[in-house]
UniProtKB/TrEMBL annotation:
Its EC number is 2.7.11.1. PROSITE patterns: PROTEIN_KINASE_ATP, PROTEIN_KINASE_DOM, PROTEIN_KINASE_ST. GO terms for molecular function: ATP binding; protein serine/threonine kinase activity. ATP binds at residue 115. It comes from Ceratopteris richardii. The keyword ATP-binding applies. It comes from the Eukaryota. Belongs to the protein kinase superfamily. May be involved in plant defense signaling. Keywords: ATP-binding, Kinase, Membrane, Nucleotide-binding, Serine/threonine-protein kinase, Transferase. This is non-specific serine/threonine protein kinase. Residues 76-362 form the Protein kinase domain.
Amino acid sequence: MGACFSTRAKVLSSSREGSGNSSSDTSPKKRSSKSSNNPGSFAAKRMLSLPAASDRTSPTLRAFSFADLKAATRNFRSESLLGEGGFGCVYKGFINEQTYLPARPRQGMPVAVKKLNLDGLQGHKEWLTEVHFLGALHHPNLVKLIGFCAEDDHRLLVYEFMQRGSLENHLFRKGTHYQTVSWADRLKIAIDAARGLAFLHDAEQPVIYRDFKASNILLDSYYNAKLSDFGLAKDGPTGENTHVSTRVMGTQGYAAPEYVATGHLTAKNDVYSFGVVLLEILTGLKAFDKSRPLAQQSLVEWTKPYLSDRNRVLLIVDKRIQGQYSQREVQRAADIAQCCLCPDAKYRPTMRDVLRSLETVLFSDDLSMNGDGNTERESSNRQHNSGT
């Protein structure tokens, strides 16, 4: 496709991971990893890797008792359940904003409490990774980690509560509970998410998110977006290393092809995943859906012919937001997605470049006049309606 913007890459090493050498920009600074390689039981390893003052976690993180979190969520009752996944279940709870003690519903500060499934070492490692990263990284577009519980066999995390839940729910779930996200809000969400990723990639010790998808983008009441779930995040490569060799993990449809093929992890893997989510934002369709016809199951493959075709790109835009965008806006967003999805990682843009490009879409004059005296938005809507 050619170079869309510019290049850069970064990443960590742990017991089953190693650094690699390729040809890309690097960062000379390095941070130590706290994972243990000693053999033994899950309990023994867990005892060796609990958050401690010597770790890089923030001293402001609150250590909660299990009894307090049980009370805050009303005994983890089903009515408090916000969602569940491979890591465990997330519950809504209430705590006093000053004392952090349990509070009655609607009389305290709402929080989200993630409760680990006690299924072995991998789950604990992901819990510890979240404390490791979110305890040290602070940015308006990263969900705030308030504290944790590491009492006996219990492993929980306490986050700020995001009122509108995940972007995934608003894009793909039907029903009155989930409002259709407007075109303007979709652009804003994409920009917020890009800011979060750019912050991670540009940090003094770069971080690779590794699990960027719509379900991990949470929205507050004003549709401000924040990245959540850092259980698969990794430190970026340092020195002469340009990738990390790691076990392939993630969600089908979002992972970059070179990562799936080789296990080589770089920041450009996150860029690819961002391109997939940008397609979901444009189309309102899931990255991979077996219920669709075979040729359309992979959103990336199905939309390829449309992205660079000025006359056809409007055909793939979510019909629920028809009339809210100009053709120029859609084409520019499609161009950005196409660059992010470039099969050759070295030609993908950096997230900083993606952010700048998205901001030009949001702040562009979408009511500029065209040759026939109509706005671009009016003309594109007529074109969309006619199916051309």
